[in-house]
Amino acid sequence: MSLTAVQDTSESESDHGPNSDQADPNAARLSSSFLFRSGTPRSRQSSPGHSPRPGTRFGDADSETTSCWGEGFSVQRRSGKRRAERAWYSEKRVKGFVGVIGLVVFYFVMNWVMLLRLQDHRLHSKSWFSGKSSSSPAPVSVTIQAKWKKNGKGKRPAKGKYGRLLGLAAHALAEGYSKPEPKDLWQEPFVPASSWKPCADQRSWEPNEGKNGYIMVTANGGMNQQRVGVCNVVVIARLLNATLVVPKFLYSSIWRDVSQFSDIYQEDHFINYLSPDIRIVKELPKELQSLDLEAIGSLVTDADIPKEAKPSFYLKHITPILLKNGVVHFLGFGNRLAFDPIPFQLQRLRCRCNFHSLQFVPKIQQTGALLLQRLRHSESHPGPLDHYLVGPYAASIEKENEGPAKKVSKYLALHLRFEIDMVAHSLCEFGGGDAEQKELEAFRAIHFPALVHLQKTKTLPTPAVLRSEGLCPLSPEEAVLMLAALGFKRKTHIFVAGSQIYGGRSRMIALTSLYPKLVTKENLLTPAELEPFKNFKSQLAALDFIGCTAADAFAMTDSGSQLSSLVSGFRIYYGGGLTPTIRPNKRRLASIFSKNSSIEWRVFEQRVRKAVRQTKHVQPRPRARSVYRYPRCNDCMCNMTLVT
Fold first, then answer.
1. Chain segment 433-459, per-residue pLDDT in tens
2. Rounded to the nearest 5 degrees, what angle is found at the Cα of 167, between the Cα atoms of 164 and 171?
3. Which of helix, strand or coil describes residue 151?
4. For 196, which of 78, 269, 455, 636 is 20 to 30 Å away at the CA?
5. Residue ranges per structural domain of the chain
6. What are the angstrom distances between the C-alpha of 75 and each of 82, 87, 554?
7. Is the model more confident about 162 or about 103?
8. In 3D, which of 307, 284, 299 has the Cα closest to residue 229?
9. Cis omega (within 30 of 0) on the bond before 341?
């Protein structure tokens, strides 16, 4: 039997068990009704065997009654005594049963009160999504309900699709306050993971003189897509024996960021570190600057290059242009170089560029170090990746926290890839109805015209099919259910990368209600500290990159996200087996979430943990997969267990 068949069998069997959250209210109602009918005060008053009344100033009432009725009453009194004894025994049994029922009712009432208090806890201030910072934000009260409140723009996001599961999650978090977390929650299999060591910095070739001409590149997308484009063009420059001009970044109508290479990365370090591999200059020679590159055929766009083109494509089609005109300009260059097949040394150069040559500028490193200090609270030493992320400012983390050693404060980083561009491009539905569809269609018409054309000319999968195939990003509600099922406690410190969540604060109600110790960089950094990065989304993304990469555990919600891919790869390359990453199998999770109206929480936990645990297995890079995300391969890392 295949693995899929086994999963389907187990899922069908487990989903037909008793539904605990439906049984509990009935038990409470039955118990309340029983107590109302047979309350202790009433039964004591009506019972013939109740304790005699106390004496009065006229003497004992019972003795007076006996003397009045004479000896004829003695037989009746004995039979009455026997009846009273039987009644007392029966009452004792009833009292015991009532006591048990009372304890059960008390248990359910207390759990219900705890659940209400958990749901009605106070949240962070409006600074969450308005960009206003505060070290101790003023809370605002919200409740997880089936009917969500409208946000500031009058939009209504999800209408409680997961209301039942969120209630069970809140109950489980309240109950599990004192329970230990699963042992593997904050770790990955250490021995097989730690056997891989970084070695992309090792070279075994002579420098490339770049005699065939100059390559210019204008990389598109956000910071992470641009990073991939830079590493790819470095490899192409070596492949074509060309000189690379320091990359430029294309202005994006979505990102609206004018940041260039030197605003994000240390330009001189980039040039010097890669000098043994390729020749890099800061600008074209003057005699080439005046050329109309489009007119002479030296302008090459993404439309001219197949996605993940092989090296042979560049040798065949780009080399002649380079030799003829002396320059080629790749405009909008992104994911245009295949991962396989590619020569070993070129693949290693790709890794060397990503993991070694691209270091953030001091401004970003310094603010990133400050962010890590505040994320860790009382930790007295920098993390294992800090040096590679914030350079010399890692020492300031240790200096800032000098003094008696305190308990380390772990934090989980969560990348919610749920911005409007991602939501619109996915073609999925997220419970917003017609208003959501119209808004996303309008966004696609402006920013993704090619996708709109494809919708009109091709028959594309329906949103339901896309979701069942695992092609939709996890919503914030699904993300919090995954974290709760995995065993992360309510008091877990969570850092959320990015704050431009589609749907705004109302979409975050579930996450912030179940995990109140949740922050973003806007919460932890003051307006003055964020001012140098204002309106520079790529530079802000670099701060998120630092916060996610240095985390004790990292959870992604969309494996196709470039930030998640680069962060997880960086954690593998430098983490030494100490930095686990949670990569949800969205196809399996979609199957589990589809049972949200009936599945028991215990079964939900088991299935989510099984689905996620399998993605934490340590394995070499699969063929044709990204070396930026899967650096465990001989091109990037060295497996020490194979070294003799």
1. 899 999 999 999 999 999 999 999 999
2. 140
3. coil
4. 269
5. 157-186+407-418+473-642, 214-357
6. 11, 18, 84
7. 162
8. 307
9. yes
